[in-house]
């Protein structure tokens, strides 16, 4: 929850979530500080995939509890209501949305294939099990139903495989022995025979380094990846093959290097790792949040932010966090401005690096990558905007009544709510002169699109 960036057979896969987009809320303040943002549009510094916003469907059963709360209910792979209209409409709204099927219990999942040799039972609570749960099983009938949803919504699917199958526990938290691939192979074979849209098979969940609950040595992990890639090559033949990605865990430089050395070239198509910048999501205050807020704010990112990432400079408060991309579909650029200050608003002037370079000969200096002496009342976006008629589009997200815990989010002051049928409401911008500063209120987010911004890297 892009997935892929880079070139060649090895690409870095990051899973970027947008929790801040669900939590920031605004309080209008007359106090403000000036900030200058200079966007460098001559070249991109990175790129994301079209499925940068993504989601995970986890395996936790209703009995999973933390912090005296048991919030999972019917939200797992095994019991999610696949007929809920909001589910399908949310996935379709992103067109496409990458969905990762996986999580903590994936390394205890069995697949109900004909040769399983065991009853295909769900997870049960057991104190002796990993994460205090037994092994659980997904039937092929349930897998068919899930793929009906994926096929009907155009989801891009990453499926996390059980990488502990066949291993034994050497000591607490450490597992050894080779991977038993027989059950996974039969499951992959069934999936391939049905032409289900698996974009990538991910091997294991948080088993890298010291692991979370369990770990596997990098050398053995690399050998097992060779086995998995061989299975994928054999079962998919000359058809388009899903990627093999791993390890889906916390980054440990030594462990990752050993993994790549052990697996060798042309085995691992993408490296995946997990980052919990904002913690593990254990804050009980989020239980009453309206999930539509996260959906709609992430949808704005998906609709507005292109795949090209641009460099920028900022002069001003560290509480204003700017991010610049090539705009999606419309040309020009798109910015996300996060105001993390509780009481201070920011008046943001956006300038094109081209104009700053030209102006240096007219008494404007660049010191320590920041520009001083620029007129704060002018926002240069390039010569195309010099006639004064250029417009920009603004989408300001804030909380109703300025309450950070409000269940309703506002877009440009208008409440944003899903309909009873789960339909997405219109997401309309306000048009503003491109050459005026942008006011970003305290604890709010602003998406801003400059269609006429001269950015060579964005094809203009």
Automatic annotation (TrEMBL):
One of its GO terms (molecular function) is hydrolase activity, acting on glycosyl bonds. InterPro entries: GH, Glyco_hydro_79. Gene3D superfamilies: Glycosidases. GO terms for cellular component: membrane. SUPFAM superfamilies: (Trans)glycosidases. PANTHER family: HEPARANASE-LIKE PROTEIN 1, HEPARANASE-RELATED. Belongs to the glycosyl hydrolase 79 family. This is Heparanase-like protein 1. The lineage of its organism: Eukaryota, Viridiplantae, Streptophyta, Embryophyta, Tracheophyta.
């Amino acid at each position: 929850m892009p997935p892929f960036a880079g070139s060649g057979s090895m690409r870095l896969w990051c899973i970027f979530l947008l929790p801040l987009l669900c939590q920031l809320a605004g309080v209008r303040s007359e106090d403000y500080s000036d900030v200058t943002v200079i966007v460098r549009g001559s070249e991109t510094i990175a790129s994301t995939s079209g499925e940068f916003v993504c989601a995970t469907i986890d395996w936790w059963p209703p009995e999973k509890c933390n912090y005296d709360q048991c919030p999972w209910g019917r939200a797992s792979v095994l019991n999610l209501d696949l007929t809920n209209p909001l589910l399908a409409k949310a996935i379709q709204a992103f067109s496409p949305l990458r969905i990762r099927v996986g999580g903590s219990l994936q390394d205890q999942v069995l697949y109900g294939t004909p040769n399983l040799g065991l009853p295909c039972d769900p997870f049960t609570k057991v104190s002796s099990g990993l994460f205090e749960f037994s092994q659980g099983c997904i039937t092929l009938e349930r897998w068919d139903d899930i793929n009906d949803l994926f096929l009907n919504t155009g989801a891009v699917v990453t499926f996390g495989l059980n990488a502990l199958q066949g291993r034994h526990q050497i000591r607490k938290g450490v597992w050894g022995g080779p991977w038993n691939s027989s059950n996974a192979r039969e499951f992959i074979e069934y999936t391939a025979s049905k032409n289900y849209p698996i974009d990538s098979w991910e091997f294991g969940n948080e088993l890298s380094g010291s692991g979370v609950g369990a770990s596997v040595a990098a050398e053995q992990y690399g050998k097992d990846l060779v086995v998995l890639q061989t299975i994928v090559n054999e079962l998919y033949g000359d058809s388009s093959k899903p990627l093999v990605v791993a390890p889906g865990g916390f980054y440990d430089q030594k462990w990752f290097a050993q993994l790549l050395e052990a697996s060798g070239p042309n085995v691992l198509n993408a490296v995946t790792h997990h980052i919990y910048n904002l913690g593990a999501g254990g804050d009980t205050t989020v239980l009453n949040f309206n999930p539509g807020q996260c959906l709609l704010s992430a949808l704005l990112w998906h609709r507005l932010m292109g795949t090209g990432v641009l460099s920028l400079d900022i002069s001003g408060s560290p509480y204003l966090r700017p991010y610049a991309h090539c705009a999606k579909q419309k040309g020009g650029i798109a910015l996300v401005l996060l105001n993390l200050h509780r009481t201070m608003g920011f008046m943001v002037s956006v300038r094109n690096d081209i104009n700053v370079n030209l102006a240096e000969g007219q008494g404007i200096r660049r010191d320590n990558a920041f520009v001083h002496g620029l007129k704060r009342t002018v926002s240069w976006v390039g010569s195309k905007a010099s006639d004064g008629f250029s417009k920009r589009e603004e989408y300001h997200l804030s909380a109703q009544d300025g309450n950070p815990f409000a269940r309703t989010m506002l877009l440009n002051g208008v409440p944003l709510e899903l309909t009873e049928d789960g339909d997405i409401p219109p997401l309309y911008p306000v048009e503003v002169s491109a050459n005026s500063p942008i006011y970003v209120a305290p604890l709010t987010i602003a998406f801003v699109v400059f269609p006429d911004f001269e950015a060579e890297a964005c094809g203009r």
